[in-house]
């Protein structure tokens, strides 16, 4: 069976031992730093640190390779779009212009500043993507819901989050099952078919997938209603875990990284690191 994308991967690692709320708080801090800063030094530090955390988590690259390739494809499109619609953005930000390739002296001349700016944009993606993937694949949905409820989030919302996370692998299994069934009926979706034909044949999978998803939603809703879900103000959790020392130390460490990163970024009044 193919490896399911963005589903919980159970491992014995320090990252897995953290509670779901700790990982969520750390991910929010991490994303905030990446969004606010354009300081190359900070972004490179965060990127190297995220690679280190990824290794510590014991999640194998091949288990998330498809998602990474998919995101990198859109990153390439994003970089091309930035250059097409704003080819002199780097010049405007850094205030200098070092032309590498002169294209008729026009606005599409390739400058060192533009390359540096787009490198920073790429680093932002490389900083956030590993953290986002780790947050999803190292967090047990039930334990995460219990952690959310423990810090004050309504258990109805917490349970909805858990169901959403659990639905990712479910919909992948349904997709593979329906695809195999349609192929057994003679609908070819392999590379042997031309792309327009393959797109047309994909409709024979998407429609049953939507219908089966709606059917599952109704079944789950009825089951929860019959069991009196939402009747009481509180509920217990089988997967609940208390905060441990490793959670507190991790949150303190990430807060320190946030403070230091923001200081380095804004100490001179500009969030863009200018080497020119």
Topology:
Elements: H1 14-17, H2 20-36, H3 40-56, H4 65-85, H5 89-94, E1 99-101, E2 110-111, H6 112-137, H7 141-150, H8 155-184, H9 195-226, H10 245-266
Antiparallel strand pairs: 1-2
Helix pairs in contact: 2-6, 2-10, 3-6, 4-6, 7-8, 8-9
Distance between the termini: 52 Å
**Structural class by sheet pairing and helices:** mainly alpha
Largest sheet: 2 strands, antiparallel
User: How would you write the strand order of the largest sheet?
Assistant: 1-2
Q: Could you tell me the number of beta strands?
A: 2
**String of helices and strands:** HHHHHEEHHHHH
Give the mean pLDDT. Answer: 82
Account of the protein in words:
InterPro entries: ABC/ECF_trnsptr_transmembrane. Keywords: Membrane, Transmembrane, Transmembrane helix. The chain crosses the membrane at residues 20-36, 42-59, 66-85, 115-137, 248-266. This is Cobalt transport protein. The chain is an all-alpha fold. It has 2 domains: 14-140 and 242-266, no CATH class; 156-226, no CATH class. Helices cover 67% and strands 2% of the residues. The chain has 10 helices and 2 strands. A two-stranded antiparallel ribbon has the order 1-2. A hairpin with an 8-residue loop joins strand 1 and strand 2 (110-111). Helix 8 packs across helix 9 (195-226). The longest helix has 32 residues, at 195-226. The protein is flat.
């Amino acid at each position: 069976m193919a490896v399911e994308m963005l589903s919980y991967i159970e491992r014995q690692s320090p990252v897995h031992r953290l509670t779901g709320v700790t990982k969520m708080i750390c991910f929010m801090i991490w994303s905030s730093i990446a969004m606010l800063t354009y300081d190359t030094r900070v972004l490179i530090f965060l990127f190297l640190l995220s690679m280190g955390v990824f290794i510590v988590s014991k999640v194998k690259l091949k288990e998330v390779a498809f998602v990474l390739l998919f995101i990198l494809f859109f990153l390439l499109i994003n970089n091309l779009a930035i250059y097409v619609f704003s080819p002199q953005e780097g010049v405007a930000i850094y205030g200098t212009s070092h032309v590498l390739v002169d294209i008729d002296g026009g606005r599409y001349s390739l400058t060192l500043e533009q390359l540096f700016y787009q490198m920073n944009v790429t680093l932002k993606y490389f900083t956030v993507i590993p953290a986002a993937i780790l947050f999803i694949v190292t967090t047990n949905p039930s334990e995460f819901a219990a952690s959310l409820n423990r810090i004050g989030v309504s258990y109805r919302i917490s349970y909805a989050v858990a169901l959403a996370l659990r639905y990712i692998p479910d919909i992948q299994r349904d997709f593979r099952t329906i695809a195999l069934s349609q192929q057994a009926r003679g609908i070819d979706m392999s590379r042997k078919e031309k792309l327009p034909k393959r797109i047309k044949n994909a409709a024979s999978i998407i429609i049953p997938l939507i219908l089966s998803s709606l059917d599952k939603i109704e079944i789950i809703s009825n089951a929860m209603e019959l069991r009196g879900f939402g009747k009481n103000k509180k509920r217990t959790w089988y997967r609940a875990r208390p905060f441990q020392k490793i959670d507190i130390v991790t949150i303190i460490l990430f807060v320190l990284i946030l403070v230091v990163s923001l200081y380095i970024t804004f100490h001179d009044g500009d969030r863009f690191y200018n080497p020119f």
